[in-house]
């Protein structure tokens, strides 16, 4: 029972204390005047009566009523019902004015009313919330006063204060105050449920669903909420409603439904609150930054930007919103129905209110179900102490990531919820019932809204019943004031009288006395055991959050552990990777802990080193995926295990597993330790109260429970049930028994605290206590995360003395590990002991013990640490030594590293096959290479060896990385090393490698990569072990002056160039003035400075011996041999020459004075003297003037190369004073000399010299070559189209030159005579023009476009019409120049040369493109982004575009040369693109360069002699480091590879040869590709030593010698398909679609590393073979010949060699077996070829014209099979099947397998394989005649086919060889062909019939029989 009202107060306006405008209230009277003992009088009531302030008003207002809520210091709520009315009084302002005459500040204009009204409040203070009752009672008092009823007011108030009613129980109580009134008070059935009336419904009406949900979540997650309204009662209702929907949580922060204006500063408090304020103060609330403002009148909720409200987790939010809208707006659902039901009104407000509350109750049921399974009961007596295990709850609900739930569980409200509802023995309510019995139902129904609705209606009914258990009784009778007309008249309203307090006090005392004498009310205690509801486990499964862990995975984990404990280490090692993968799943982790538990006996399990290592690895892996919260309780179950598993290190020294698993965040999380502690305490307390017999079993069973703290069903149920039972018995125990139990429990907790202090020191003290490794990684002490119980911020502040509130262990004053650990444990102990009621003495004892425990543990650890360092590192594979080259030495011995997989997927097993990477091994740095050698981590391939290496000189990028290896937790330092041999080493140093050692490694690597001088490279230092690398400092003294002068001159020229070019247009002098130019030339200021330069450049220091010897050396050089072969001039001893040769070899550069980067001997026109050459050279960049490098032997056109013109080179000749007005000119007609030079070249061409005119070549004017040789090919004149392409024409070329024709040549053999018209001899004077880069046609020659795109109708045979070509004529000399340089040039109509401007790829482009290409082919890390796929990256690198450009220009030049025009390639500095183009042109035009000797000569001549800057472009020394790596030569090799792919039969060398060069041109193993020019090579003495000075036969200094030697031993460089055509000119396709990515970029062989250092690979293979040979031959089992070939591991060409290589190898091994002297492979091969040729000649059928057969019989995809017959003959084209090395009708030599069969891999256009073919007569079936047929024996398809004729495509019949039984000689039968000998007949017997055949003669028949027989036996 409770008093209805505690105090009655009358508050009035205080006239005395009026300060300014603000009035004050004061208490006039209060009853009772003494405070109640149980309930002191609340302070500050007068503020709350008038929240807006006490003011006098000029007119009387209506009485008002509202209820304020005050909270006292014990957080008890007091409901203050305020009834306010207004009383008149004389205006105090006027009285004051009279008193002090007239005040100065009174405004005279304002008329003061004579009477004003002051407020007076009747206040009723109660702890019960019965708003309506209070309204009625206060109204009655007012009515008695106003209407002057006969009842004394004292009686009414006395009755009111003595009225006692029950708090709950559902009873109705009728009360009367003695004024003829009667009221019924209805108490709720259960006072734990809030009473809301209809306030919740009103709140939703005012704000709407979403807004209220925001407020709801904000209140739960502890945000500040402010309500605004102009009505006080609404503010109170809204606040009450918000608290009602939070049930079962209780709001525990500041709660002020009506805040007086005077206390507004409360709003800036830092703690959360729910406060209501009158809208009058709206402006004051605007500047609050972190307060959520709900405006009830406007229906808005304003959330500031800085506030983030966590909303409900997703499916729940949606379901809640749906349910709420169904309650509030039931019409929404049927709004669209065609026949809506007649009435769907929402329920009445009171019912609706309960329905809304039911939705929230249902929501909490979903949120909190299963919470009782996560309670730890840590004390039962004297008072239950319960803790909630938050992590376990979140883990089981799979909501660890959910922000909202996390905050709610951390909040004060939830802490209160646990302390209130945690105890297992207490009264239960609706929520307990919901959690216990309806969870199942909620889960099943949550997806169907209508079922949910029914459930909600049921809950609502219960809530409604709780408030209104009985039907409403109409017994209320309360008087209201009479509404008389004069009611508001001031005259008849008396002042509220002072009351007689004695009378009221008498009433109160009388009632108190009555209460004393009454018998005590005994309220039946309704305590009972609280049911827990269904456990959490199965709930998660339905959400599918449990990780899929198939039984198979768990099986793997169990097997692995069994193997470890059975000491089957190899088996365990194989399973390990799979186990570590499986442990990502929760089920597998739980399984692991259960398995390990079984191997612990008496809390110990002693292992050997290897077992220990494995177990620790598994534990680490398990813990690695646990979050710091340990929501799955894995760390909790592992905790006892890490202190159980151990290994013996030495006498009395044991290392436990905990010292190896400390690197995890979970150990530094205070909440984890608390949860663990409480869980253990609970088990012990439970054991305490269980009878002795049952006890042991259950404790034993606990260990196996499924997950520690939240663990298994019976155990937890047991603890709470037990506690409930004990609580029930408690009152029945005697005092002694009670205190005994309390003491037992207390000491249990105490002993656990000691135990945990030990455990924590185990896991927090690192093994090496000198390092503070673990602790500084995590913030151990930030108070928020300190605990999962409710020490929140506000309390934590007051406990600061036992907490150090800094974050983490490291304090300013000491970072000493021991201290920080002690402090952490102390904090933990304070916390748990305070919560679980440990006595102060015990706590003090603990504090003194902890430092000793830690100190003791540190001492043990030191010993363990010492011993563990002595342990041999376990199990690390032994380091394998690499095989080194002769002369290669180790710079640094192997350092243990892990090779990490990069972005290439093959090796990781991602594309199938085993995971070869990551691998463990060592990295070796030698003078030549970087080598990794090791074994894969994956035990399935643990026996294989992985090797990756690259030459140190090819290193292009090195960057530091940090890697975390999957096996071990720690991050390791690593390096990523990229090489331009398309290799990437991504290594992580093992922990045994000291970091300074890694640094030393990097330094050495840099030193070797960028030596000071080229003599520091491996090619020079090879094998010079003793000598250190010398710094070469023998440079000229005045070097700097020289360079300075050079630079000055250069810049001077540059500026001159700029000035002149910009100022006036140059117009070349007319022919007459040309001579005067000569004199100008001599005074040219440029030549003066150059002269000086040459003077200082004497070569005496350069060439060692006399000039003559040098000359003889120079003559021996490659170029000279080649020039002689090309007939470009011979060099006799006297250096005299025959004058009729057009060209001569000039020695002008023999001292390298004219041009440093050119060779000593150059081919120049005969007529040009050396002095002219010196002058001309200055016009070109780097002095690289045009020289001849090749001549077409047929057309005698020459190919020249030079650098581009200097812009400045032009300048000197732009100063002609008497130049005529600007006429058409060309930028390169710069001087007479140059003109003469060009003219000399043109005159050298025979076509020019012939008297018949300027152009006599028939090929220029006619579509065909004017030769009668029918085998000569028709060249389609499509140069125009080609040029257009090369120069970037924009128009698509119509007509004949459609896209196909641009790049392709259908090579047609024309047998018809070309008709050359007579006009062709004297063509008109038009000539080819140039097309400008923009793709528009040149202005001066409108015909060019038509001509080049051949707009006229083509002729029937596919060439352009002759008439078109007769008008045009070719220039004699084309200059391929750079578009950017030749801008604005005009064509001189007299000149006979023409410039073709093209865009060249800049060196920078090549460099960048190559970087991107490397990244595409060898990505550093795997990526799944679509933008990073291989093909996308390849495209972005633009490498293929660059190849396309180079090939395109080269093909154009080839076409021009082939049609008889000379070409001069004059691009950039003449040593990059120029070299590429010139070399490719020669390769395409001249078959000689496609042989071994020719290719070597080509590279030596064009690349080495003509000064391609290998050292500079390869960044080989320190000086060129900054320029970066630019693979110009690699690009050239790639182009050759593309051509090789398109013409595989034209090259003597194989693709491997190209890869070999590509690898070694950057490897620096040979000296061939070092230095930038011949000049530098001579200066270093490298050039001529290769001949005589070979001291060490092992060391090859030239790559060519090496290739020659290797080629003698093995056919690896040889192309078996080499079968060249005579004088074949190749024209490859250059479209990007025709280009392939070179496999050199992508392939790798991990088994042996790169195969380009041949002797290494050979030695490696021999070693491997030696290992594989068993000690004693194993006769029992036949050894399988099968071998698994793994991509990227095995060398495919070796494991699966091509047939010829295989046969040659077999021959070799046969020779060895038979003891024959081995024959060189080349001799064998040549013999076979010779044989085949002879056979082919013998077998040729006379019926075929032999001239039709191409000289080679090996067909190829690009050789068209079409043969055009003369028009008179057959019109169809005959297809020859020529896909064999042998003739089409070849005859295999008996006894030797025909080589022809080996070519089955090269398919011809027909999809047939013909092993043997020819004509046989075959007898038809019964009564059919003999007929000749063309028979084909096909070994591959295993059949004998026959055709009508040889040309026939359709097969007439097939005899399957599988059905043939025998082949026997036959006899002639009737109708057989005449004149054929008898032996030519033979029969073929099959299972179906006998075939009779007849060959042309008996040998032929014998051959057929043998062939068929061999086919049969082969099968």
How would you summarize this macromolecular structure in one to three sentences?
The protein is α+β, with helices and mostly antiparallel strands and 1915 residues long.
Helix vs. strand class:
alpha+beta
Distance between the termini: 110 Å
Total number of helical segments?
63
What do the pLDDT scores average to?
74
Biggest sheet: strands, sense, closure? 7 strands, antiparallel
Strand content: 5-15%
Low-confidence stretches: 97-109, 538-548, 692-716, 773-815, 1026-1108, 1133-1137, 1209-1229, 1251-1277, 1289-1368, 1586-1591, 1672-1676, 1741-1807
By DSSP, the count of extended strands is 42
Task: Give a written overview of the molecule.
With 1915 residues, the protein is an alpha+beta fold. Helices cover 39% and strands 13% of the residues. The protein is built from 63 helices and 42 strands. The strands form eleven sheets. A seven-stranded antiparallel sheet has the order 25-24-23-22-28-27-26, covered by helices on one side. The chain has a seven-stranded antiparallel sheet with strand order 39-38-37-36-42-41-40, with helices on one face. Strands 3-2-6-5-4 form a five-stranded antiparallel sheet, with helices on both faces. Helix 27 (735-764) runs antiparallel to helix 29.
């Amino acid at each position: 029972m409770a008093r209805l009202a505690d105090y009655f107060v009358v508050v009035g306006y205080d006239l005395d204390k009026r300060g300014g405008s603000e009035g004050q209230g004061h208490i006039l009277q209060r009853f009772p005047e003494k405070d109640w003992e149980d309930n002191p009088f609340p302070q500050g009531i007068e503020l709350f009566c008038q929240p807006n302030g006490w003011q006098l008003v000029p007119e009387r207002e209506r009485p008002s009523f509202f209820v304020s809520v005050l909270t006292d210091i014990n957080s008890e709520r007091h409901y203050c019902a305020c009834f306010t009315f207004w009383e008149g009084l004389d205006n105090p302002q006027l009285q004051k004015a009279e008193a002090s005459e007239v005040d100065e500040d009174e405004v005279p204009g304002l008329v003061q009313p004579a009477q004003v009204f002051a407020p007076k409040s009747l206040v009723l203070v109660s702890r019960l919330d019965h708003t309506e009752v209070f309204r009625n009672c206060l109204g009655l008092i007012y009515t008695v006063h106003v209407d002057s009823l006969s009842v004394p007011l004292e009686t009414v108030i006395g009755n009111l204060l003595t009225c006692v009613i029950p708090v709950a129980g559902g009873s109705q109580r009728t009360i009367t105050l003695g004024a003829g009134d009667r009221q019924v008070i209805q108490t709720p059935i259960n006072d734990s449920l809030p009473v809301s009336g209809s306030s919740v419904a009103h709140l939703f009406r005012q704000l709407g669903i979403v807004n209220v949900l925001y407020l709801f979540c904000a209140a739960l997650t502890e945000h500040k909420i402010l309500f605004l309204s102009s009505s006080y009662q609404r503010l109170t209702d809204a606040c009450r409603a918000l608290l009602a929907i939070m049930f079962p949580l209780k709001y525990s922060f500041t709660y002020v439904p009506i805040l007086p204006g005077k206390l507004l500063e409360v709003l800036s408090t830092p703690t959360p609150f729910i406060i209501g304020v009158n809208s009058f103060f709206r402006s004051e609330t605007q500047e609050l930054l972190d307060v959520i403002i709900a405006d009830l009148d406007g229906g808005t909720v304003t959330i500031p930007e800085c506030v983030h409200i966590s909303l409900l987790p997703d499916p729940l939010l949606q379901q809640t919103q749906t349910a709420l809208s169904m309650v509030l707006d039931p019409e929404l659902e049927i709004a669209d129905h065609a026949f809506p039901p007649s009435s769907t009104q929402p329920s009445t407000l009171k019912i609706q209110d309960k329905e809304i509350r039911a939705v929230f109750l249902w929501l909490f049921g979903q949120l909190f179900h299963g919470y009782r399974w996560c309670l730890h009961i840590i004390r039962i007596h004297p008072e239950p102490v319960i803790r909630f295990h938050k992590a376990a709850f979140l883990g089981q609900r799979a909501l660890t990531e959910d922000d909202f739930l996390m905050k709610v569980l951390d909040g004060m409200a939830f802490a209160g919820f646990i302390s209130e509802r945690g105890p297992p023995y207490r009264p239960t309510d609706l929520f307990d019932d919901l959690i216990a019995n309806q969870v199942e139902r909620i889960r099943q129904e949550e997806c169907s809204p209508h079922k949910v609705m029914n459930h909600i209606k049921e809950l609502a009914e219960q809530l409604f019943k709780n408030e209104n258990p009985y039907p409403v009784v109409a017994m209320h009778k309360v008087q209201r004031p009479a509404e008389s007309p004069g009611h508001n008249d001031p005259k008849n309203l008396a002042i509220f009288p002072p009351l007689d307090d004695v009378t009221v006090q008498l009433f109160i005392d009388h009632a108190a006395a009555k209460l004393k004498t009454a018998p005590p009310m005994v309220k039946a205690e309704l305590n009972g055991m609280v049911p827990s509801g269904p456990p959490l486990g199965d709930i998660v499964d339905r959400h599918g959050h449990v990780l899929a862990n198939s039984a198979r995975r768990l099986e793997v984990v169990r097997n692995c552990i069994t193997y470890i404990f059975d000491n089957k280490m190899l088996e365990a090692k194989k399973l390990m990777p799979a186990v570590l993968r499986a442990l990502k799943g929760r089920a597998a982790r739980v399984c692991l802990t259960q398995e390990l538990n079984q191997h612990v006996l008496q809390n110990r399990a002693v292992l050997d080193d290897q077992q220990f290592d494995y177990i620790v690895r598994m534990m680490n892996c398990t813990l690695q995926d646990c979050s710091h919260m340990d929501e799955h309780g894995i760390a909790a179950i592992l905790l006892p295990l890490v202190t159980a598993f151990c290994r013996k290190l030495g006498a009395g020294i044991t290392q436990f597993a905990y010292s190896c698993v400390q690197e995890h965040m979970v150990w530094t999380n205070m909440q984890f330790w608390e949860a663990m502690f409480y869980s253990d305490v609970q088990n012990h307390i439970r054991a305490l109260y269980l009878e002795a017999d049952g006890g042991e079993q259950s404790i034993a069973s606990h260990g196996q429970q499924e997950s520690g703290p939240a663990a298994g069903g019976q155990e937890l149920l047991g603890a709470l049930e037990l506690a409930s039972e004990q609580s029930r018995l408690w009152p029945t125990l005697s005092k002694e028994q009670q205190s005994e139990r309390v003491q037992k429990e207390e000491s249990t907790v105490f002993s656990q605290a000691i135990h945990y202090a030990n455990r924590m020191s185990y896991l927090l003290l690192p093994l090496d206590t000198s390092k503070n490794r673990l602790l500084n990684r995590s913030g151990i002490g930030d108070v928020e995360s300190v605990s999962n119980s409710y020490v929140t911020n506000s309390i934590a502040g007051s406990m600061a003395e036992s907490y150090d509130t800094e974050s983490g262990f490291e304090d300013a004053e000491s970072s000493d590990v021991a201290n920080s650990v002690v402090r952490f444990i102390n904090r933990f102990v304070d916390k748990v002991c305070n919560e679980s009621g440990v006595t102060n003495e015990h706590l003090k004892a603990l504090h003194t013990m902890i430092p000793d425990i830690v100190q003791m543990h540190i001492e043990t650890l030191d010993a363990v640490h010492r011993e563990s360092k002595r342990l041999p590192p376990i199990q690390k594979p032994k380091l394998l030594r690499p095989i080194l080259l002769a002369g290669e030495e180790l710079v640094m011995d192997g350092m243990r590293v892990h090779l990490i997989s990069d972005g290439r997927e093959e090796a990781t097993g991602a594309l199938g096959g085993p995971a070869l990477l990551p691998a463990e091994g060592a990295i070796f740095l030698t003078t030549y290479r970087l080598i990794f050698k090791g074994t894969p981590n994956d035990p399935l391939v643990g026996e294989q060896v992985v090797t990756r290496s690259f030459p140190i000189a090819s290193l292009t990028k090195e960057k530091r990385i940090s890697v975390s290896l999957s096996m071990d937790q720690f991050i390791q330092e690593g390096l990523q090393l990229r090489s331009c041999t398309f290799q990437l080493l991504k290594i992580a140093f093992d922990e045994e490698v000291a970091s300074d050692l890694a640094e030393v490694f990097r330094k050495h690597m840099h030193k070797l990569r960028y030596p000071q001088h080229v003599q520091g490279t491996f090619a020079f230092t090879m094998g010079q072990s003793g000598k250190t690398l010398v710094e070469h400092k023998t440079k000229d003294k005045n070097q700097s002056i020289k360079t300075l002068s050079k630079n000055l001159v250069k810049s001077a020229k540059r500026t001159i160039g700029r000035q002149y070019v910009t100022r006036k247009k140059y117009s070349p002098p007319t022919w007459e003035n040309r001579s005067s130019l000569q004199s100008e030339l001599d005074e040219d200021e440029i030549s003066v400075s150059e002269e000086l330069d040459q003077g200082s450049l004497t070569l005496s220091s350069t060439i060692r011996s006399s000039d003559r010897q040098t000359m003889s050396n120079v003559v021996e050089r490659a170029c000279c041999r080649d020039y002689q072969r090309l007939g470009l001039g011979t060099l006799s001893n006297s250096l005299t020459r025959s004058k009729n040769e057009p060209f001569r070899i000039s020695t002008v550069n023999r001292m390298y004075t004219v041009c440093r980067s050119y060779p000593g001997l150059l081919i120049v026109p005969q007529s040009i003297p050396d002095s002219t050459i010196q002058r001309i050279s200055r016009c070109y960049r780097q002095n690289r003037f045009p020289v001849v490098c090749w001549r077409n032997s047929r057309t005698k056109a020459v190919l020249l190369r030079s650098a581009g013109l200097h812009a400045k080179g032009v300048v000197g000749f732009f100063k002609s004073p008497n130049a005529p007005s600007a006429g058409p000119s060309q930028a390169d007609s710069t001087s007479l000399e140059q003109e003469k030079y060009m003219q000399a070249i043109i005159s050298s061409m025979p076509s020019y010299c012939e008297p018949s005119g300027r152009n006599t070549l028939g090929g220029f004017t006619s579509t065909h070559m004017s030769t009668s040789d029918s085998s000569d090919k028709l060249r389609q004149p499509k140069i125009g189209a080609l040029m257009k392409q090369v120069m970037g024409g924009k128009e698509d070329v119509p007509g004949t030159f459609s896209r196909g024709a641009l790049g392709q040549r259908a090579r047609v053999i024309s047998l018809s005579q070309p008709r050359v018209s007579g006009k062709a001899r004297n063509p008109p004077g038009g000539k080819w023009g140039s097309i400008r880069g923009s793709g528009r046609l040149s202005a001066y020659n409108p015909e060019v476009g038509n001509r080049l795109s051949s707009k006229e109708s083509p002729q029937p045979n596919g060439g352009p019409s002759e008439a078109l070509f007769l008008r045009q004529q070719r220039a004699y000399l084309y200059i391929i120049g750079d578009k950017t340089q030749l801008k604005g040039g005009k064509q001189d109509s007299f000149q006979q040369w023409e410039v073709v401007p093209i865009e060249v790829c800049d060196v920078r482009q090549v460099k960048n493109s190559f970087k991107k290409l490397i990244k595409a082919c060898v990505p550093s890390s795997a990526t799944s982004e679509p933008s990073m796929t291989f093909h996308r990256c390849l495209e972005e690198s633009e490498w293929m575009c660059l190849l396309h450009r180079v090939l395109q220009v080269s093909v154009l030049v080839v076409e021009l040369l082939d049609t008889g025009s000379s070409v001069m390639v004059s691009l950039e500095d003449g040593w990059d693109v120029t070299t590429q183009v010139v070399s490719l042109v020669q390769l395409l035009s001249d078959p000689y360069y496609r042989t071994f000797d020719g290719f070597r000569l080509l590279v030596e001549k064009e690349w080495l002699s003509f000064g391609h800057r290998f050292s500079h472009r390869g960044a080989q020394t320190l000086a060129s480091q900054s320029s970066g790596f630019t693979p110009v030569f690699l690009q050239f090799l790639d182009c050759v590879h593309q051509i090789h792919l398109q013409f595989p039969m034209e090259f003597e060398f194989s693709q491997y040869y190209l890869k070999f060069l590509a690898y070694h041109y950057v490897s620096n193993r040979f000296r061939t590709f070092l230095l930038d020019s011949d000049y530098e090579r001579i200066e270093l003495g490298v050039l001529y030593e290769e001949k005589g000075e070979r001291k060490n036969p092992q060391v090859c200094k030239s790559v060519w010698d090496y290739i020659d030697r290797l080629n003698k031993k093995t056919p690896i460089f040889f192309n078996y398909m080499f079968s060249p055509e005579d004088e074949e000119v190749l024209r490859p396709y250059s479209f990007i679609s025709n280009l392939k990515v070179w496999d050199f970029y992508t392939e790798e062989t991990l088994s042996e590393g790169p195969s380009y250092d041949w002797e290494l690979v050979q030695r490696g293979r021999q070693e491997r073979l030696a290992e594989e040979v068993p000690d004693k031959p194993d006769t029992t089992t036949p050894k399988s010949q099968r071998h698994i070939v793994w991509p990227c591991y095995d060398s495919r060409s070796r494991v699966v060699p091509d047939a010829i290589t295989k046969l040659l190898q077999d021959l070799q091994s046969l020779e060895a077996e038979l003891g024959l002297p081995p024959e060189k492979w080349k001799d064998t091969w040549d013999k076979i070829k010779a044989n085949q040729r002879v056979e082919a000649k013998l077998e040729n059928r006379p019926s075929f014209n032999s001239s039709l057969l191409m000289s080679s019989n090996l067909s190829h995809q690009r050789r068209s099979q079409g043969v055009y017959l003369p028009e008179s003959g057959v019109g169809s084209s005959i297809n020859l099947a020529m896909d064999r090395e042998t003739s089409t009708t070849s005859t295999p030599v008996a006894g030797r397998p025909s080589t022809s069969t080996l070519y089955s891999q090269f398919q011809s256009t027909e999809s047939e394989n013909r092993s043997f073919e020819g004509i046989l007569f075959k007898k038809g079936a019964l009564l059919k005649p003999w007929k000749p047929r063309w028979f084909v024996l096909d070994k591959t398809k295993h059949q004998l086919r026959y055709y009508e004729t040889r040309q026939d495509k359709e097969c007439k019949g097939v005899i399957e060889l599988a059905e043939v039984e025998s082949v026997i000689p036959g006899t002639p039968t009737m109708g057989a062909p005449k004149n054929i000998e008898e032996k030519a007949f033979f029969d073929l017997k099959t299972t179906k019939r006998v075939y009779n055949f007849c060959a042309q003669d008996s040998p032929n028949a014998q051959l057929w029989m043998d062939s068929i027989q061999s086919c049969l036996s082969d099968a």
